[in-house]
Structure formats: C-alpha cells, structure tokens
Amino acid sequence: MASRSLTVRWAAGLLTLGFLLVLVAFVAPTWLVTDGRLRNPTFIRLGLWEVCFQEFKHPRHWYDTVFSNCWWIFEEEYYIIHDILLPGFFVATQFFFTVAFTLCLIAIILIILFFKVKKNDDKYIMLLLTLGTLIVGAGFSGLISVITFGARGDGRDWMPNWEHNDHGWGFALGVIGVLLLFPSGILFLVEARVNRYKKLNEIHSREQSAYTLEERKVHYVSGHTEI
Description:
62% of the residues lie in helices and 10% in strands.
C-alpha cells in the first residue's frame, strides 16, 4: 500500500468506505419508516428486502388476511399483496441497487489483487481502468436506485399513512455510499491515464536512447573506415 500513489490510496479509501455504506444500506430494514407520531400505525418500516406491518389489511379489502411483524418481502404469505409491496419503481430500486452492490463487491475483490501487482506489470494499468469503470458504473446504477426511491418511496400512492412516512437512515447511508463511489472511480481512471502516459514516455525515451546509441556506433565505424 505504501508504494502506491496518494491518488490510489484515496481512491481505495473512498471505495472501501462507499462499499461499507452500500453494504449496510443493502441489508438495512429502514429505507422507509413511520415518523412515530401515529399511535397505532399499520406500516412500521421497510428495507429493500424486509417490511414490517402492524395489523395491515389489503386496502381494497380483497382478502381478510391481517399482516403483523417483520417478514422477508418475498415471503410466500405476502403473495396476495405483492401488487402493493412490489410496484414497478420499487422493483427498479431493488434491481439497480443490487447491481451497484455487486459491482462494488467485484471492485473490492479486484483491489485486493491490484495491491499485489507491481507497477511495471502489464496488468497494472488494465486493473486501474477496470476498477475505475466498475466503480463509476456502480455509482450510476446506485444513483438511479436512490433517485427512484427518493422520488416515489414516501408517495401517497404506496404505503399506508403516507403523510407519516419518512426516508430512514438505511436510505441515507445508501445515498452517501453511492456518492462516494464517483470520486473513487474517477481517481482510479485518472491514475490509469497518468500511468499510461508515463509508460508511453518511458518507451519513447528508451527508443530515443537506442536510436542515439545506434547513431554513435555508425559514426564511430564510419570514422575508423575513413582512416
């Protein structure tokens, strides 16, 4: 780590922090929460994969089933309210945040390999480019997710008592984590560009040195021939 540039160390640090926040947000059950002002709210909280109700019934009264406690959002018992639990915008939120999380996980694995590669290795610049591309891609995917949920999550056409529902800390951590990915990815791409130009300059310098040496040999041989 010490042999890496300051740019790489900052990029790795931002990636690590961003990944940890994205990981916590990915499993957190608090993307949407009740504000606590209602005495007996039917909706308690919701994450990407878990939802908590308290004596919740289908709002259209199609079924008499009452839902209470916290359950996995794809629990078999919830199939009768999937039209409520899984609207299109929320499925999009789950999908894009999962893509972001997966790309971050791959980037974390690659950065472990990256710190084992020497600077003069042919894979060094390729790993920098791959890391930068993956992380920026994760950032854009995560950004789509949090913007979608931020715009629609506490809307009046979704969870009951919408006026008492707020975005929770899980969502906030997801936003911060996603935003940290952009500077991390950009720094990796900048470092790749810098190293690429350095390598090209080194190749050019070696070629110039080789050409000059060859030219001197030719002049030396020519001088002796004339004698």
